TrEMBL record, chains A, B:
Spans annotated as Disordered: 1-26
Domain of life: Bacteria
Pfam families per record: HMGL-like
Gene Ontology biological process: ketone body biosynthetic process; L-leucine catabolic process
Organism placement in taxonomy: Bacteria, Bacillati, Actinomycetota, Actinomycetes, Jiangellales
GO molecular function: hydroxymethylglutaryl-CoA lyase activity; metal ion binding
UniProt-recorded name of the protein: Hydroxymethylglutaryl-CoA lyase
Native species: Jiangella alba
Amino acid sequence: MSDVTFPSRVSVREVGPRDGLQNEDPVPADAKVELIDALGRTGLRRIEAVSFVHPKAIPQMADADEVWSRVRRSPDIRYSALVPNVRGAERALAAGFTELEVVVSASDTHNRRNINRSTAESLADLPELASLVHSAGGTLQLIVSTAWGCPYEGDVPVSRVLSVVSSGARAGVDSLAYGDTTGMATPPRVTRLVEETRAAHPSLPLGLHFHNTRGTGLANVYAALQLGVDDFDASVGGLGGCPYAPGASGNIATEELVYLLEDMGIDTGVDLPALIEVAGLAERLVGRKLDSQVLRAGPAVR
Amino acid sequence: MSDVTFPSRVSVREVGPRDGLQNEDPVPADAKVELIDALGRTGLRRIEAVSFVHPKAIPQMADADEVWSRVRRSPDIRYSALVPNVRGAERALAAGFTELEVVVSASDTHNRRNINRSTAESLADLPELASLVHSAGGTLQLIVSTAWGCPYEGDVPVSRVLSVVSSGARAGVDSLAYGDTTGMATPPRVTRLVEETRAAHPSLPLGLHFHNTRGTGLANVYAALQLGVDDFDASVGGLGGCPYAPGASGNIATEELVYLLEDMGIDTGVDLPALIEVAGLAERLVGRKLDSQVLRAGPAVR
C-alpha cells in the first residue's frame, strides 16, 4: 500500500447547518446563524447552509430565508442550498444561492418517503431543474442518497445507482455526490461504486457523503482517498444522527475527518482546534452530547 | 484498489472483560463471569479474560482468580491473561492460564506511569518471563503499547517501537501485538509500522489493538487488512474508554469490527446479532451508554 498516492488537498463541505440540524430538535434561527458564522471562521471553504423544502415536511428548515439573510457571508466561502424539486430551486435562486444540490434516492421506497415521489418522477424533473439553475448562472449537484443501502429495501444495486447518475448526466448536472444514508457502506462497496461511476462518467466531479451509523465512516473515506477522491461532506460535531437508527450517528464528524486528513498530510485549510471549538458550540446549541470522538479527545498530542 | 487481496478469515480477540472493564467503574465478579460466559456463546474463539496486576494499581482486576475459577470454560475458546511482570505471570500460570500477554510501553513515560518501571526495566525481565511461561507449556505475547503515540510524549518514533520488538524477539516471545493506546494512529502510520515490523521480523505473528479515541479505529483496521493482517483485538460494546480523554472511546467495538469484516466477506466465526445482544448486556453491567454504533443501529438491512 505504500505506493498509493493520496490527494494533496481535500475539499470539505460542511453540512452541519443543513443535514445536521435537519435531524435534531428544532433550534432557533439565531442559533443557526451563529453556527454558520462560526464555521466560516475555521477555514472551511464550503458550507451547506440551508434547504428549501416544504415547511410541513421539514419544520427544522422553515426559516431558511431568514437564516440565510442574516448570515455574515464571507467572499471566501461557497455556500450551498439543498432543494427537493423545481419549487425549492426557485426559492433558493430567489434567495441568492448559486450553488444548489438536488437530492434523489436511488431506492424508490426511500424517495417516496423522503419527498413523496418516485425516483423516476424526481429524475423527470432534472432537465428543467438544471436548465433553471444554469440560466440563473448557478450550478446544480445531483446528490444520490441511499447509494449504499436503503432503510426499507436493504442493499441497493450498483446498477440502480448508476442509472440515476446517467439520468443526471443527461440532464446536465454539474457534479455528483453519493450519500450513504443508512451508514451501510463499507470500503469494498465504496471502491466498487466509485470505480464503476468513474468508468461510466469520467468527467463528472464526484463527492462522497458518509454516515458513521455503523462506525465505518472514516474507513470509507480512507478507501475513497486511495482512489483519489478529494471531496467529502461532514457535519461539525457529527450533528444530526440517523432517523432510521435512534441514538446512532449520522454524518461523519467534520473534526474527525479533518483530524484524519491532516494527520495524513492532506491539506484541508481547516484550523482543527478552532473547528473543535465550534463542535462544542454545536453541542451547546442542540443541547445533547454529540458523538464526535475528536470533540472529546482533542487533537493528537504531538 | 480492486486488486488487493484481503485475508479470508480474521481471528478476533475479545478484550472487553479485561481491557474494557479495567477502564470502567468496578463491577462485581458475578458480572464479569456473566460477560465472559455470554461472549463465549457468540462464536468468538479468543477472549482476554483477566489481568494479574497489583490490586492496588488496578482494583478492577483484584478478583481475577475468583472470576477465572467461575468461568464456564469452553474447550473451543482460547482464554488469555495479561501480566505486567514475572510475579503476574506466576499467578496467571498458577491459575491455569497457558496463553499470557505481557505489556510494555514503547514510550518510557507511559511505562513508568502504567507499571512504575522504565521500558528498559520491563524489557530486561522478558527473557525470564518467556522462559517461565515456556517451561510451563504456555505461550507469551508481547503487547507493545503506545505504539502510535504516547499521552505524555506525543509521537513515538517507529525506531523506538522496533527496538522494543527486537528485545522481545531476542527473549523468545511467541507473538506480538501493537496497541494504539491513545487512538492517535491513522492508516498511513499503521501501514508504515506494519511494513517495517514485517521487514525486520517476518516470522513473528502480529496482531493489532486499535482504539477509536479519535474515530479512526476501523480505518486503521482496513489499512491493516490491505496488508494481510488477520488478527485484531476489540472490546464488546466498545467497553472501556480512554483514561487520557474522558468521554472518548477506548477499544474499537467488537460488533463494529465484526460488522466491517463480515460485510467484506471476511469470516470471523462470530454471530453478529448474538454479539450485539452481549454488547447490550455489557452496557447494562457497567450502567452507562456505550459508544458502539452497531449496538445502536444493528446489522445492516439486507
